[in-house]
C-alpha cells in the first residue's frame, strides 16, 4: 500500500520508541499479553519488545500511522503477502533485534499460542490479496474516545480503492461489536492453546 490515509501521520523512525512505550502501556493489563509474558524477567521490557518488532516490520513492509502528534493511538499493517514475519524480513526491517530480546521462552510461547490463528489466516485468505492489521492500540487515558475506530476507518478508503479486504484478529470481546459496527464480519472464534483464552478472527470486505 503506497497511499497515506487522509489525516494520518506516518510513524517516523525516531518515534518508534515512543510508540512502543505507548503500546506496552495500552496492553499492560490485557489478559492475553499478561499470560504470554508470565514469568518472564522484566515483563515490562519484554512486552515493549513484543510491540517494537511489528512496528519496525510494518514500517519496512507496510505502514504505521498515528492519530497525530499526541499519539493517542497507533495502527500498523502490511499487505497480505508480507503478513508472515520471516527471519529474513525481520532482519531487513530491523525487527530481528527486538524479536530476539523477547527471549526464547516468551518467543516459543507466542509461536505455540498464535500458530492456530496464523494457520486460519492463511487458509481463509488463501489466493486473495488483502491487508492485514497487525497492531492497533490506544493509550489508556485516550481509550473509549473513538481513536481506534478512526484509525481503522482510515484504512477503508484505500482498501476499497484497491478492492481488497481488511483482516484482523482481536483478543478483546468488546472490540468485536465495534468492528462489526464498522462493517467487519466474524469468521471464527478460537480458543488459544496453552492459555485457553479466546480470540476472534474478522474480515471486512471492500465496498463500492
Account of the 3D structure:
- The protein has a seven-stranded mixed beta sheet with strand order 1-2-3-4-5-7-6, with helices on both faces.
- The two termini are 19 Å apart.
- Helix 1 packs across helix 3 and helix 3 crosses helix 4.
- Strand 4, helix 7 and strand 5 form a beta-alpha-beta unit.
- The model has no long low-confidence stretch (mean pLDDT 91).
- With 208 residues, the chain is α+β, with helices and mostly antiparallel strands.
List keywords for this structure.
7-stranded mixed beta sheet; 8 helices; 208 residues; alpha+beta
Topology summary:
Elements: E1 9-10, H1 16-26, H2 31-36, H3 43-61, E2 63-66, E3 73-79, H4 87-93, H5 96-101, H6 104-124, E4 131-138, H7 147-162, E5 166-170, H8 173-181, E6 185-191, E7 198-204
Helix pairs in contact: 1-3, 3-4
Short description:
With 208 residues, this protein is an alpha+beta fold. It contains eight helices and seven strands, in the order βαααββαααβαβαββ.
- What are the low-pLDDT stretches, counting only 5+ consecutive residues below 50? none
Class per helix and strand makeup:
alpha+beta
Helix content: 40-55%
Write down the secondary-structure element order. EHHHEEHHHEHEHEE
Average pLDDT level: 91
- Radius of gyration using CA atoms only: 16 Å
* Distance between the first and last residues' Cα: 19 Å
**Sheet having the most strands:** 7 strands, mixed
Number of strands: 7
Strand fraction: 15-25%
Q: What shape does the CA trace take? A: globular
DSSP helical segment count: 8
Q: Identify the strand order in the major beta sheet.
A: 1-2-3-4-5-7-6
Amino acid at each position: 500500500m503506497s497511499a497515506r490515509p487522509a489525516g494520518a501521520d506516518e510513524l517516523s523512525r525516531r518515534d518508534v520508541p515512543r510508540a512502543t512505550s505507548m503500546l506496552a502501556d495500552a496492553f499492560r493489563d490485557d489478559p492475553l499479553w499478561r499470560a504470554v509474558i508470565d514469568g518472564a524477567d522484566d515483563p515490562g521490557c519484554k512486552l515493549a519488545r513484543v510491540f517494537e518488532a511489528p512496528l519496525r516490520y510494518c514500517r519496512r513492509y507496510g505502514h504505521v500511522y498515528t492519530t497525530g502528534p499526541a499519539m493517542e493511538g497507533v495502527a500498523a499493517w502490511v499487505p497480505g503477502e508480507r503478513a508472515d514475519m520471516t527471519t529474513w524480513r525481520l532482519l531487513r526491517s530491523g525487527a530481528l533485534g527486538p524479536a530476539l530480546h523477547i527471549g526464547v521462552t516468551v518467543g516459543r510461547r507466542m509461536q505455540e499460542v498464535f500458530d492456530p490463528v496464523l494457520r486460519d489466516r492463511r487458509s481463509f485468505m488463501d489466493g486473495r490479496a488483502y491487508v492485514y492489521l497487525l497492531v492497533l492500540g490506544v493509550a489508556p487515558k485516550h481509550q473509549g474516545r473513538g481513536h481506534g475506530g478512526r484509525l481503522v476507518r482510515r484504512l477503508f478508503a484505500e482498501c476499497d480503492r484497491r478492492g481488497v479486504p481488511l483482516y484482523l484478529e482481536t483478543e478483546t470481546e468488546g472490540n468485536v461489536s465495534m468492528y462489526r459496527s464498522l462493517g467487519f464480519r466474524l469468521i471464527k472464534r478460537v480458543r488459544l492453546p496453552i492459555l485457553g483464552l479466546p480470540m476472534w478472527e474478522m474480515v471486512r470486505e471492500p465496498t463500492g
